Amino acid sequence: MSGQPRAGKRTRLLPILIGLGIVLVAGVWLWLSSTRSARPAGPSTASLVTTGYFFYLGRYIPPPYRVTVEGYRVLVNGEFPAVTMVEPPKPLPIPEDPGDFAWTPDKLKMPLGDVGLERHAGKKAVYWAFKHGPARAWEMVIEYIKAQPGVKEVRVMDENSVYVVGTSGGGFGYGVSPTGLKGWEESLKRSYASSEAEARRIHEKAVAERKQRLENLRAQYEGRFREGTALFVITPNGGVELLVGAHQARAFLAQLAAILKSGEPDGEKRKALMKLLDEGSLVDQLLANQGGPWPALGPEPPR
What we know:
- The chain is an alpha+beta fold and about 300 residues long.
- It has helices spanning about 105-110, 115-130, 135-145, 180-190, 195-225, 245-260, 265-275, 280-290, and strands spanning about 15, 30, 50, 55, 60, 65-70, 75, 80-85, 90-95, 150-160, 160-165, 170-175, 190-195, 230-235, 240-245.
C-alpha cells in the first residue's frame, strides 16, 4: 500500500525490444525477472539439446545444454541460473486496528518521511480495507492522513496516489497498487488470510502457480536452444539477458568475434562493442573473457 505506484517490478517478465544495429533489430529481446534466491524444490526433467549458443557472464558455455528447474531457479546444465525467483510469501493474519499514530514534540520537528506515519497509515489502510472494502479504505486513509498534526498538505497525484508534505519538511508518496483499487483488492486477497487453513490454501496455490511459471520458462529456454538462439545471461542469478534469434545468431556472433579478435586495444574494442550492444555490463564481461573458447560458426540455417 505504501509508496507511490511504480510502473514495473523486477519480479515481472517484461519483453523490451532493443536495437543492435540495422540487421539485428528484429531478433533481439531483453527480459527482466526476479534475482532473489529461494529454497530448493527438486529438479525437473529435461532433454539434452545440442544446438544454440549460451554465454554466462560473458563466458561461452558450449553445448550440449540441459535446462532444468531446481527449486525456484531455471538452470542451464545444472549450474548456470537463467532465472531466479523467490518462494511466494505466506499470507499474514488479517490485521487489527493499530490505533492512532503517536505524535511527540520531537516527531513534530522531524521530516515527515522519518517519523513512521507512512508505515502506520498502511496498517490502518489494510485494516479498513477488510472492514469497509478497498474503495472506502482509500478515502478513509487519505482523510486520516490529512488530519494528522504533522501533515501540512496532501497533494493528489492521480486517482491512485497522493504525495504527503510535512509541517517540518519532508514527505512521502502514498498509493495503492499501480493497477488501482482492483489490483489492491487482489493483492490483499493474496497477502492476508482469516485462518491458518486459508493461509495454507492461498500459499499452496501461489507456489503451484510460480512453479508452473518456472516450468513454462524452462520449456521456452529449451525451445530457444533447439532453434539455435544465442542466449547471453548478464547477471549472476540470471533474469537479465540478451536473446538473439536463430537466423541472426551466427552473423551476430561473427561480428562479436571480429571485434574481440581484432588485435585492437581493449579501449577500441569496447567502443566497437558498445556501438553493437549498448550494454556496458555485457561488453565488460565479453572483454574479460575474450581469450576463452568461442562457438564454431557454420552457415545460417534455412529460412
